[in-house]
Amino acid sequence: MHEAWTFSDYLLLIIGAILVKNILLTRFLGNCPFLGTSRRMETATGMAMAVVFVMTLSGVITWLVQAYILIPLKLEYLQTIFFILVIAALVQFVEMFLQKSFPALYQALGIFLPLITTNCAVLGVAVINIREDFNLLQTMVFSFASAVGYGFALILFTGIREQLEASSIPEFMKGTAIGLLTAGLLSLSFFGFAGMVD
Amino acid sequence: MRVLQDFTKGLWKDIPPFRLVLGLCPTLAVTTSADGGLGMGLATTFVLTCSNILVSLLRNLIPRKVRIACYILVIASFVVIVELVMQAFFYPLYMFLGIFVPLIVVNCIILGRAEAFASKRPVLNSLADGLGHGLGFTMALTVLGAIREIFGAGTLFGHSVFGPHFAPFAFMVKPPGAFVCLGLMLGAMNIVSRGRVD
Amino acid sequence: MREITRMIVVLTAISVASGLVLSFVDKFTKDPIEYQKLKFVKGPAVLAVLTDYDNDPIKEYKKNVILEKKENSVITKILFPAKRKGKLTGVAFEVTGQGYHGSLGIMIGIDIQRNILTGMRVMTHSETPGLGARAVEPSFYSQFSGLRIDDIALSDRGGKINAISGATMTSQGVVKAVKEGMHLYLRSRKKMIDALKTG
Fold first, then answer.
1. Which residues of B touch A117 (CB under 8 A)?
2. In a domain, C32, yes or no
């Protein structure tokens, strides 16, 4: 993507990231915490907010690391190490910052904040930004839109699951198994958007 | 012998991603073919085993406060080795696995075993634990990949199974199919283990 | 204080050890990786544009071959040799063109005895599907086989290439790049042959 992007190119990127190639349901990133935090709405919303925050910030910072450290020093092969360390450090700082300045939010997020370090969606988006050859603005937009898509899928999914809990399901399908089937159906419905972009 | 037990538990009792519900992202994404499942499984096994060995060797030297950061450094280093070796000698597999190769570093199985086991146990046991869980994961991925490939594309490891007149059930190799297949497999495993317990 | 020193020492030690091991692995895998990338990304195009060979043009590639030196710039290419019974028959290399939406990555093959094109393939582009993107179809690229330098032009300018209907810019972009590539070959033919004959 080397020529200048128009506004509609960005719009397509956003719609694509949220609906068509949803980071969670289509690209399969961020599934572990997905199935774990989608039982109750409070935890789901907490995770969604945390992901939006961290993913957007880490997308930008890792892009800067790639552009100003890895490429000039010809250390591209160390991308994985640098990126994951940046994300881990970022999550640490965010934790400390929230604890001091927004304690209520910090409590709401609970243990999900440190868990974001191992959320494959965060590292995944950072790597996608580089592989798609995005510039800084495209990186910011894509990271933010992907995070929104993740939160969107997560909250939708939690809503469905909360309803399911109330109904009767065979013993052997309870828990993760039915969760996966539900995710499959949700993913199928998102497939309906496939014709929208390109 | 304790070591043998540590090895075999990863193959069934504690098998990822079914019993040890971790490592879901790659499970869903790369199992569109048996080859992909096998390749990813073996790569993950290599990283898991090596990191378990090294973490166990260093377990008395790593200070508690920075242990997660150290584990991440160790794991990420082995992932980079896998990335480089795969690119150099198994390029088609590398192209197929895409971003999921660097994402091995956030595969919760690896960090999970490092924290829960290798940091507290001797080297030989940690090696067995890593190898067992890795091979169990590999089996799970390969089987899931085989099922999806047979029904979704009519081939197994690239070879045609049903002949030229088979109309593939494309749903299986698309994202929704992944979720559904995995959910059903998990349900089936639940039935089997409930039956055994009785 | 003791505790913090220990943390820093351990982290630094692991980082340094990791850095050393990884830079070693990187050096060891650099060449195989380069070859693999060429083989799988450009390879199919290389084999498609060459006609008379019994060797492995990709394995015998030569990189950084200096073809021309000007005051400020140097033109270098990666060359893929086609050989029959050890004797050089043709060469393939990449040229870049400008399409309607972005740059075009094109592989061309040339017969060095008769100085004609043996083939052309568009490898990378950002053109419109159904229009400029049709440059990758046989109906377009097969027109380039067997052409001499003077034939490489659109038919309405005296050449032998029929443009893709509705995609004149893309067609012209390809033609221009291929023609320039052919000119480059004619100017630096001896340098290319010398570079490929060794080893």
1. 72, 106
2. no
pLDDT digits (tens, 9 = 90+) for B143-158: 888 888 888 777 788 7
Where are any strands of DSSP class E within chain C?
A: 62-69, 74-84, 87-98, 103-111, 116-124
Q: Is B73 on the interface with C (CB under 8 A)?
A: yes
Q: How far apart are CA B193 and CA A177, in angstroms?
A: 14
Residue C182 lies in a domain: yes
Range with the poorest average pLDDT among A129-133, A144-148, B175-179, C143-147: B175-179
Min Cα distance A75 → chain C (Å) is 9
Closest-approach residue (CA) in chain C for B82: C25
Tens-digit pLDDT profile for residues A132-174: 888 899 899 999 999 998 888 888 888 887 877 777 777 667 6
pLDDT digits (tens, 9 = 90+) for A24-71: 777 778 777 776 666 678 777 877 888 888 999 999 999 999 999 998
**Which residues of B sit within 8 Å Cβ distance of A?**
21-26, 28-29, 68-69, 72-73, 76-77, 79-80, 83-84, 99, 102-103, 105-108, 111, 174-180, 182-184, 186-188, 190-191, 194
Neighbours of chain A (3+ CB pairs under 8 A): B, C
Q: Is A77 on the interface with C (CB under 8 A)?
A: yes
Looking at the domain assignment, is residue C139 inside a domain?
yes
The domain total for chain C is 1
ipTM above 0.85 for this complex: no
Which residues form the domain of B124? 2-197
Query: What's the sign of the alpha-carbon dihedral C47, C197, C35, B155?
Result: positive
Whether the full predicted model's pTM is greater than 0.90, yes or no, is no
Per-residue buried b or exposed e for C58-91, using 16+ beta carbons within 10 Å of the residue's own CB: beebbeebebeeeeeeeeebbbbbbbeeeebbbb
A10-14, A54-58, B81-85: which range is least confident on average? Answer: A10-14
Candidates C107, C122, C110, C94; CA nearest to C147 is: C110
Which range marks the domain in which residue C92 is found?
A: 47-197
Whether residue C176 lies inside any domain: the answer is yes
Retrieve residue A96's tokens: 């400390």
